[in-house]
Amino acid sequence: MSGWGWGRYVPVAERRAKARKKMEKLRKQGHAIQPVEISGRTIARSFWGKGWCDHLESFSDYANRLPRGRTYVRNGSVCHLEIEPGRIKAMVSGSRLYNVEIGIKTLAPAAWKRIKDKCSGEIGSILELLRGQLSDRVMEIVSDRENGLFPLPNEITLKCDCPDWAVMCKHVSAVLYGIGSRLDTEPELLFLLRDQDPAELIASEVSFPVAEGTAPEEVLSDDDLSSIFGIELDQEPETPTPAKKRNASQKAASAGKKSKKKKTTVFTPSGKNIARLRKKTGLSAASFAEQIGVNPASVYRWEKSTGNLKLHSRTLAALTRIEASIGKE
Ligand SMILES: [Zn+2]
Questions:
Q1: Same domain for 227 and 181
Q2: Ligand 1 centre and the CA of 66: distance in Å?
Q3: In terms of domains, do 175 and 244 share one?
Q4: pTM exceeds 0.90, yes or no
Q5: pLDDT by residue (tens digit) across 58-83?
Q6: Which phi and psi angles does 162 have, rounded to 5°?
Q7: From ligand 1's centre to the CA of 163, what distance in Å?
Q8: Residues 275, 171 within the same domain
């Protein structure tokens, strides 16, 4: 018996251990690994997360096939899930590690404009929007089955490299649920996925200037975001930061803070500075994120935050490098 024949049953513990090892290896290579971790049975509970799952389950093709992914996503088989404009890339642990790629059409400008027009003057702040604290009318608009923010089945393409790939295997199903779970903690990723800026939905002049200028008053602070969504703004909360690195990054961050007015060698990591730097490079959030080795959502989130950010030393080093290469003002 070879032990590796097709269909060999691999105990859950064994394949989990294998997957963990592989993930650790990827992490060491500098990939920002983002597992889907669900505690309890509820996959998603927020307006956006639950909205995503309910929306997909409302289509019969999906309703029939999605359930097979539920156990998978709950037991932590989705080892990695990253969302970028128009695409979700994920790794799911099965008999081996499978690569899943889901394409989602970005929202057409005309469709986005229709949503904006309908919501005009009705959403008070980005906080309310992301928290899902919306009037019934706005909720109906953004989660409209045909014309809302969630994609239609014909805007979705599914791919998995497992041997029993048909239309929707359990790996793909698990990832689709994983997206819902991710939206619970990072609802802004839905907008990133559809490639539209949520700030454009906000009623007043309150928005997030990307260019230098006065800081907007209603921008979420790190504390706000952390307490509301339970996320750590120093990125990759699932990656334990070695004490040495953390110290280095804190030192670097405080060094940058102290000598803010002076010309420093270390990049001062604030949302404003990151937005300014990215603007200078002319890169999209996704490309910029790739340059500094983080996921686009982090860049997106940082740019919306106020105050100095605590970043990994390697991220800070990458930002410093970019700043040095394009020259300071
Ligand atoms: Zn599969």
A1: no
A2: 12
A3: no
A4: no
A5: 999 899 999 999 999 999 999 999 99
A6: -80, 160
A7: 7
A8: no
